[in-house]
Amino acid sequence: MRSVFTEFAMRGNVIDMAVGIVIGGAFGKIVSSFVSDVVMPPIGVLTGGVDFAQIKIPLTEASTNAETGAVTEAVSINIGAFTNTVIDFVIIAFAIFMVIKMMNAAKKKEEAAPAAPPKPSTEEVLLTEIRDALRSK
To answer: Helix, strand, or coil here: 121?
Structure first.
């Protein structure tokens, strides 16, 4: 059982997939930072200083029970956080689209390269040598 799992785990596809997942996770963090720290602040300035991450639609207000002192959290729909997430997704999807487009273009160039002509058979080589010898006489 252990050798079957080891054989499976050491396949190239599994390792490639693991590397892709790790890099994808890191790329997602980079894009999230790009959206929240680079893209959204100028958009907020253009819209009058609105911080999109803080845009919410309140459903209930936070309250405190006078008898028990228990605090009930406010419930809201976080439109701004959702907007940031949608922008993250669009940027990541576009980046992946561009990478796949470049890979497909590179693959087409490889396929378009002509294959090397097959080497002549030994009979053809001998006949060519005989022909060349007869011409030189």
So the answer is: coil
- Residue that the structure tokens 């819209």 belong to: 47
Which residues constitute the domain of residue 111? 2-136
Instruction: Report yes or no: 51 and 44 within 8 Å, Cβ to Cβ.
Output: yes
- What separation in angstroms does the CA of 61 have from each of 57, 64, 67, 136? 11, 10, 18, 104
Please write the tens of the pLDDT for every residue from 27-78: 888 888 888 888 888 888 888 877 777 889 999 888 888 888 888 888 999 9
Q: Specify the residue for token string 């011409």.
A: 135
Q: What is the pTM of this model?
A: 0.55
Question: Hey, is 50 helix, strand or coil?
Answer: coil
Q: What is the CATH number of the domain that holds 73?
A: 1.10.1200.120
Contact (CB, 8 A) for 81 and 69: no
Count how many Cα atoms sit within 13 Å of the Cα of residue 5 in the half-sphere of its side chain.
2
